[in-house]
From TrEMBL:
The active site is at K194. Belongs to the NAD-dependent glycerol-3-phosphate dehydrogenase family. This is Glycerol-3-phosphate dehydrogenase [NAD(P)+]. Residues 183-324 form the Glycerol-3-phosphate dehydrogenase NAD-dependent C-terminal domain. Sn-glycerol 3-phosphate binds at K108, G138, S140, K194, D247, S257, R258, N259. GO terms for molecular function: glycerol-3-phosphate dehydrogenase (NAD+) activity; glycerol-3-phosphate dehydrogenase (NADP+) activity; NAD binding. Pathway: Membrane lipid metabolism; glycerophospholipid metabolism. PANTHER family: GLYCEROL-3-PHOSPHATE DEHYDROGENASE (PTHR11728), GLYCEROL-3-PHOSPHATE DEHYDROGENASE [NAD(+)] 2, CHLOROPLASTIC (PTHR11728:SF1). NAD(+) binds at A142, R258. Residues 5-159 form the Glycerol-3-phosphate dehydrogenase NAD-dependent N-terminal domain. The lineage of its organism: Bacteria, Bacillati, Bacillota, Bacilli, Bacillales. NADPH binds at S13, W14, R34, K108, A142, R258, V282, E284. Its EC number is 1.1.1.94. The gene is gpsA. GO terms for biological process: carbohydrate metabolic process; glycerol-3-phosphate biosynthetic process; glycerol-3-phosphate catabolic process; glycerophospholipid metabolic process; phospholipid biosynthetic process.
Length: 349
């Protein structure tokens, strides 16, 4: 395919790693950041030490603090800002994005106050159909992608031509494989909610509960993700794919995961404010727990793991008590439960 100018907003760990994929594919990448010192570090030293320590930034990437320079005439714009900053970044970029530019986002979270998905936020700020916005997600640590470790992700859009354009943009036969999926609602929801379960996995590991507990947490966590996702209009099958179980496994089992590390610190008795200060980077699962807690009640779905994590994060419940509450729930039968839910057109609990 022809090489393109691609704007990547912003220069965090995931934005930088995806910029490497794009540069390796021959595209000209403009990586936008608000931080002039960070831009200088990337351009002069080919490093982004705060977010990807020790990784080399290829020459095909140019960092800039000038939004007009980054976005004007870009044939594709990739948003990778934290969920809390997405609306502001999109608003700044809107005046420079051409009508024919491909718009992609790779942010896993909801807008905290409105509870909106990121594609909805972008649609509102950019004045384009949500169905033309591509969601990039899947099992992918930035620390591995920047080092060209084999990775497989999914790009989702209702308009398949948009998803296929994003697939062409990112597909790299050496280390970065890309699938398409029309279920952008499911891909977005899975990417956001899995961060909650990863917090729980870190907390479980931090308490020393071992593999049995974590396997149960991942399995029942997937049920919660699917239940809320389907209530929001997603296809249940999406949660059995890369954006669902794939991303859930990688985020719950790796110390690369910010959410896992935050959960592990909470298990050690550190208060949430101190955990976030020590992390020094956004932990999306914290905000998402609050959003999912409200969404579950709006949609009338049960999310017991989310409920207990909400209590730990925002109500001061000791982690051990949260585990006791989960273990002490009313007994049920898994197979009968699945069959009952399926017969009503819903997903398993």
């Amino acid at each position: 395919m022809a090489h393109k100018k691609v704007a990547v907003l912003v220069a965090g760990s995931w934005g930088t790693a995806l910029s490497r994929v794009l540069a390796d594919n021959g595209h000209r990448v403009l990586l936008w950041t608000r931080n002039a010192a960070q831009a200088d570090e990337i351009n002069r030293l080919r490093r982004n030490e705060k977010f990807l320590a020790g990784a080399e930034i290829p020459e095909g990437i140019t960092a800039t603090t000038d939004m007009a320079e980054a976005v004007s005439d870009a044939e594709a714009v990739l948003f990778v800002s934290p969920s809390a900053a997405m609306r502001d970044v999109a608003r700044q970029a809107a005046a420079y994005i051409g009508q024919d530019a491909l718009v992609i986002h790779a942010t896993k979270g909801f807008e905290t106050d409105s509870l909106k998905r990121m594609s909805t936020v972008l649609s509102e700020e950019l004045g384009r159909s949500e169905q033309r916005i591509v969601v990039l997600s899947g099992p992918s640590h930035a620390e591995e992608v920047i080092r060209r470790h084999p990775t497989t992700i999914v790009v989702a859009a209702k308009e398949i031509v948009c998803a296929e354009s994003a697939q062409d943009l990112f597909m790299n036969s050496s280390y970065f494989r890309v699938y398409t999926n029309p279920d952008y609602v499911g891909v977005e929801t899975a990417g956001a909610i899995k961060n909650i379960i990863a917090l729980g996995a870190g907390l479980s590991d931090g308490l020393g509960y071992g593999d049995n507990a974590k396997a149960a947490l991942i399995t029942r966590g997937l049920a919660e993700i699917a239940r809320l996702g389907e209530a929001m209009g997603a296809n249940t099958l999406t949660f059995a794919g890369l954006a669902g179980v794939g991303d859930l496994i990688v985020t719950c089992t790796s110390q690369h995961s910010r959410n896992w590390r935050a959960g592990s610190m909470l298990a050690q008795g550190l208060p949430l404010d101190e955990v976030l200060q020590r992390m020094g980077m956004v932990v999306e699962g914290v905000r998402t727990t609050k959003s999912a807690y409200v969404l579950a009640r709006q949609h009338g779905v049960e999310m017991p793991i989310t409920d207990q994590l909400y209590a730990v994060l925002f109500e001061g419940r000791p982690p051990e008590q949260a585990v006791e509450s989960l273990m002490g729930r009313v007994k049920t039968h898994e197979i009968e439960e699945v069959a009952s839910e399926a017969s009503r057109g819903r997903t398993l609990r």
